[in-house]
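Example with several molecule types.
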Amino acid sequence: MALKDYQGDVNMCCRCSACKFIPMQMVKGSAFSYVCPSISRYNFHAYSGGGRMNIAAAMLKDGFKYTDKLLDVVYNCQLCGACGVSCNYAMDMEVLEPITEFRIKCVEDGKTNPALVKAIASLKKTGSMVPVKGKRAGWATGLKVKDATWEKVDVLYHVGCLTSYDKDMQKLAKATVKILQKAGVNFGIAGNAETCCGSRAYQMGYPKEFLAQAKKNMAMIKKAGVKTLVTGCADGYHAFKVLYDKYELKGSLEVLHISEYIDKLIKEGKLKPRRKVAMSVTYHDPCRLGRLGEPWVHWKGKKIPGDRFVFDPPKPYRRGANGVYEPPRDVLKAIPGLKLSEMTRIKEYSWCCGAGGGVNESNPDFARWTAQHRIEEAVSTGAEAIVTACPWCEKTFNEAVRASDSSMKVYDIVEIVEKAI
Amino acid sequence: MALSKEAYKEFEDVVGEENICNDPAIMPAYYNTEFAAVILPGNTAEVQAVVKLCNKHKQVFRPICTGWSGMFPKGIILLDLRRMNHIVEINEKNMYAVVEPYVISSELQAELFKRGLNFCIKGAGTNCSAMLRGHGHMDQTTSGDDRNHLAIEWVTPAGDIVRSGALGSSDEWFSGDGPGPSLRSILTSAVPPGVTPGVFTKAAIKLYHWPGPAEFPVVGHSPKYVLGEIPSNMMARYYSFPSVEKMWQAEIRLGEAEVCYELMGFNAAMVAANITTCNEEDEAMFKRLNSEVQGPGFFVIIAGDTPADFAYKKKVLEMIVSEADGKSLKTLEDPELEGIIMCQCTRISASIRETFRPGGAFNSIPIMGQRDLTIKWAIGAGEAKKPLIEKGYIVDDGGAFFGWGVEQGHLGKTEIFCKFSPSNPEAKKAVETWQREQNMRAFEERYFASTMGPQDKISPALCNYYSWWEKITSALDPNGVSPLGGSLV
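Resulting C-alpha cells for the full complex:
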C-alpha cells in the first residue's frame, strides 16, 4: 500500500501526543516516560508520530512541498514503531505504516539522504549493509559448521551482515555455533552465499532493493530445502518473519530468533545452562524482535461508510502485543546465578537502541544519543550489564558506553548463554 | 506574516538555533496554518524574553502544551512549551506540587501515588498538561477547576512575570494577592477562550490523600492492560437506576455520606469505550451493556483507609444504591473488567477511547452547575442527538450524557458530546448546529448560560461580563499580541 492508501489513517490523528510517551498506564513517574527518540531529541512536534501523521495528511491534501527541514524530520526517525504502540492503545489507525510509506515516497521522489544512498549502493554491490572485509563466512573457519547450500541441515542459521563482517561482532556468531553444537542441532549456515536480509534497506525507504534481497534469500532457502531458519539479529528476524510475509515471500518457512530457539532447546532439555553466571543484568527488547516482531496479518477490506473508522471485514491492527518478549527473558531466568531486573520501558513500549531506520548511517550522533538514554535507564536498575538480542543494539550501546565513560557492560544474549554452558 | 530576518535572529538569540523554526513543512504537524515561527522556550526567562520581543515587533503569539486543541490564526508565533517539562517540587507536608506546563498528568500522578498522594486529573486525559484547569473523574475527592491552582507563575502579555498565590505554609513563593483586588479571577478565568492571555509557566497544584496502591499492579500488553489483582481496599462498580430521579437521589446521598472516592456519571457507551480495545469490540460491548442497564447510571470507586473503613463504605454504598432501586452491572463485576476500569478511571488513561477512537472527532458541551438542573437540560440535549444518530452522522451512544458531583456536593459537571467523522462535512455541520441550538436552549430555558454560546445574547444577561473581560485583556495586552482563543490542553 502506498501513502495515499493511508489517507484515512493519517486524518484520524487528533494530536493527543500519546505517541510521545509510553502507554499512559505504564508511566511510573517523570523519568523514562518518553518513548519516541526523535521527538525527545528534536522537540518540534513534527518529529513525533502524530506530527508525521499530520504532515502526511496536509501534504496528501495540498501537495508535497519538500524542504531540507522536512527531510531532516523524515530521516531522523528510527521507525522503531513505539509511537504506533502508544497510539494504538486507544486508537484504531495505522501509524508506522504511513510513516514508512512517507519515507518511501521521499526516496521515490528523489528526496534521498546521501548516507543512505551510499549504503544502498554498497548493498547492491556487495550484498551487505556494512563494509565488506574478507569473506562473509570467514569467521566460521575451523568451527566445523555445515554449509546448508549443499549439506542437508534441519536449521539454517542466518548470521546477518554486521555479525558476519564486524570483527567485534563475530564473537556472536561463534557463540551461537557453540550453543547449537552443544545442543546437538543439525544446523548450517549459507556460508559465503548468505546475503543481506534487506530489512535495513526497507527501513531506509528502499523497498525494491529490499525485495531483491528477499528474493535472493528465499531462492537460496528453497533450493537448500530448509524448513526452519534461525536469525541472530532482530533486523533479520523482522525481515524473514514479518516483511517477507507481508510481501508473500515467506511461504511456510518457520522463522525463529536465536533467543526463541535457545528457549525451545532449554525447555526440551536439549540445552542445559549449568554454569553459574553471577551477574545482575537488565534486558533490552530490540524493536524488531519485540513490538515489530509481531507476525504480519494479511487483511483486505473496505471502510464502512458512516460515522466510525471501521472496516469490513474488521481490520486487525498489529499493536505490539504479540512480539517476542518472554523467550529471551525465560532464557536469562534459566541461567544459574543471573539476576534479571527490568527497566521502566520494556516489551511493546521499549525505548529504541537508536540504530534503526537508517539513523545509524545518516545521523550516528542521534543513534548514540538514543543509546545513551537507554544506558542511563539500564544504570537506574542497578544492573551491571545490559543484555540485548541484536548485534546492532550491542554495537550502538557499546558506542554510547564508550562516549559516556559508563561502566555498564553490554552483551548479546548468546554471549550470556555461552558463559553458562 | 513572515518574520523579518532581523526579528527572527532576535528570537533565535533567545532560545538558540535548535529551538526556533519557520520552515513551512513542520507547521502542519501543529495545525494546518502558516505560523510566523514555532519557538521552543526552555524556561520562564526565555518565555519572558520571547513575549517582550513579540511586544516589540507587535507579533501575535500563542502557547500550547501537548496540543490537541486550540485555534491558531495565520501568522502567529507558536510557543511550544514542550521543553518546560519539569516537576519543580512535590511538597508532601504542605500537599502541593509545582510543575511546568509540559509535565503531563500521568507523570505527576505516578510520582504522587508513590507518596500516597493524588491530584485532579482533567477529563481531557492523563496525556494532557498537569497544569490544565478543569474537571475530572475524581472531582468527588480531588475537587476541580480553579480550586486546585494554589499559585501561578504567569508571563503577562506585556512580558512581566507575575507570581500569584502561595505554595502553602512555606515562605518560598508568596504573593500578597488580596485582600482587595485580586488577580485570582483573571488567572483562572472561565470566560472565552477559557484561558488567560499570556503564558502560564508554572503552577502549584493542590494535592490530596490517595488511599490506593503506590503503583497499580498492571500486567499484560497494550491495548489490554489488566490489574494482576484488585487492591484489597478498593472496589469499582457501575450502578443503573430505573429513572434519572432515582439516580440523582442516590448520587446526592452518596455525596452526603462521603463514601465514594470517585463517582462518575458515565453512560454505558463510555463504560464500553473504557474496557474495550477496538471499535468493533466497543460497539458490541455497548449493545451488551445497554441491554443490561435498567436506565441511567453512574460508576463508583470506593477506597478504604483501613479494612474497617472499606467495609463501612461498601455497606453504605450498597444500602444507598439499594434504597434507590439501583442495580449493579454484572458485566463489570468480572474482576478483570473491574480492574481495567478502576485503573482507567483513576489514571484517566482512556479519554481518547471515549472521544476520538470511533470517528476521529467529537464536539462537546461541558457545563458546571447545579447537577439536578443541568441533568434536566442534558436529557433534552440527548434527545436532540437522536435524529443525528438516526441519520448516521454521529456515533450511537444512546443519546447519553455524563457528569458528576464535585467535592461530594450538589454542584458538579455535566457534559454531553457527539462523536463523528471530521471527514464528513454534513456530520460536522449537523453537530455544530446541535451544539449551537442546545447552548441557546440552555440559555432561553434558564438552565444555564454557557460561555460557549453567542456572546451578544449571553453577555448582556451576565452583567456584560464579556465587555469587562475585553477591557481587562486590553489593559493587560496593550499591543494586542495575545489574542483570545486557545487552550493549555
